TrEMBL record:
The chain crosses the membrane at residues 20-43, 55-78, 90-111, 161-180, 187-209. It comes from Macrococcus lamae. It is found in: Cell membrane. This is ABC transporter permease. GO terms for biological process: D-methionine transmembrane transport; nickel cation transport.
Amino acid sequence: MKTDLTEFYPVIIQETINTLIMVGITLVLAVLIGLPLGIILYATGRGHVLENKTVNVILNFFINTIRPIPFIIFLVALIPITRFLVGTTIGIWAAIFPMTLAASLSIARVVENNIISVDKGVIEAAEAMGSSKFDILFKVLVPEAAGSLILGLTFTTVSLIEFSAVAGLVGAGGIGYLAFTYGYQRFDVAVMFVTVLILIILVQITQFIGNKVANIYTSRL
């Protein structure tokens, strides 16, 4: 059965909005969790300002255990926990929990790697001026790495768009729901084309905005 795209536009618009809601809420939550987690990962590393081997090893083990798991498997594996915490395994909020957890760990690693890349001379200069460990972390390292962090968050946002499409396969709604329910199950090439096109447009817009913001920030340094 082929879908009449003329009558289908309201559904397309609604599911696109659902995708944006999933990605937007997840990104905010993931940044709130992943940013401080990444700073802790860096700070507790060997030779860094708050060196703590125990904390660093535990965090690295946790992140390195979860990150390699494909999101579709991770999503399904978390269903019992999602049902317990959210009360359902279907819908936007059921998708936001696993998406947030996966994205938080990705952001944490992005933050750690970008802060590590900051020139050590900048840290030495801050220490020579008597800056506290807190000041070095939040007034020197984070601002210096901010341009790269913005690009890293852009990459994570693109990944979240992909995650939202996968989440649609298990009833979370969004573009993935359209592609699976109306495109794949009904063998409707037109719907598949539209959903893929929307995903491409969302990714292009996200990448453009991320690059633009990073360039503006970098040019002001």
